[in-house]
Structure formats: C-alpha cells, structure tokens
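Attaching the record inline, Q. Sequence:
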Amino acid sequence: MPNIKLPDTEHVARAIFLPAMLDSSGKVSLAAFTLRHNEGYFSVSRMAVDGWLEDIKRIPTSPTRQLGGYCKMGVCNIRGLGFVYDEENEVAFDVENKATDSNKSHAGIIVVLSENTIKGDKTVLLKPLPTGVSATGLLMRIQTKLAQLAAKNYVTIGSVFGDGNEGIASGNGTLKIEN
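Structure, as predicted:
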C-alpha cells in the first residue's frame, strides 16, 4: 500500500512497553521514541482503522518488555511539533499510512530535516547530516517533543495489571488507572 499522508483529523496510538518506555515517575520517557537501525519512522497505529488495538496487542513482548498501554496523539498535533533547528535547517513532522496485509492500522511518524527523512541507528541518527547539526542533540529534541505530546494522553491496558481495567492517565503523563 502506498505511503499516503494521513488527514489532520485522525488520531494515532503509540504502543508503550514497560518498563523501558516510562521513567521512574511513570511519565512517558524518551525511550518511547527510539528509531531502530535504518528505520525512517516511529511506528504507530491508526485509531480510525478497525482492529487497531488488536494490532497493538499483537506486538511481540518478552518477560522484560510488557505492553503497558498506548499514547493517543492527534495527527494535527504531531504536525504542529515542527521547529527551526538553526538558521539553515527546519524539522518537520508528518504521519503516513504504512499499512500491510497483516497490520492494516500501521502508520509511521516521519521526521524530516531540511527535506531529508531522518533515519535512525538506535540512539543516534544516521549521517550525513548538514554541517553543524548534532545527531545526538537533534534526536533528543525530536524524542522530547514526541514524548511530551504522547504523555498528554497515555491509556493503560488493564490486562497487563491483571484487573481488567483500562484507564487514561492524567495530562502530566503519570500512570493512573481510572475505572
């Protein structure tokens, strides 16, 4: 399927895995937005597509990586995260459809620096970057913006906690379950 940009009116969900994607105070951490090697987008699920939550629940887990919930983000809010990095470089955010036959709700948050899509290599960005652009500094600014937006609407998935409840976290991103 083609990588079509999503409309501003849609919402996407970023899966949050415990313990790595929440910090010690229960807030969404920068680790929630790490690019894997040569990956050009942060995976999310389109909430307008039937079965999106089931798609999130199918993401592999392990004893040290359990699904805790997801963060709901508006596409228009993601696009609004763009910033000027320096006099010559602007950073823009967008969201594209990345659906496959096995994951129809798959989408990706792409980040573009001066018209070049940013790709990752774990904790750094793949080069070449424009002269004077710090890969580490740029990645941290991108992660911080996405984590701050994601923290505004963190929803727990109750099955992880064994009580069957799902809840929405408070606006400061702390982990709370509302019945």
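Confidence is low (pLDDT under 50) at residues 159-179. DSSP finds three helices and eleven strands in the chain.

More tomorrow.
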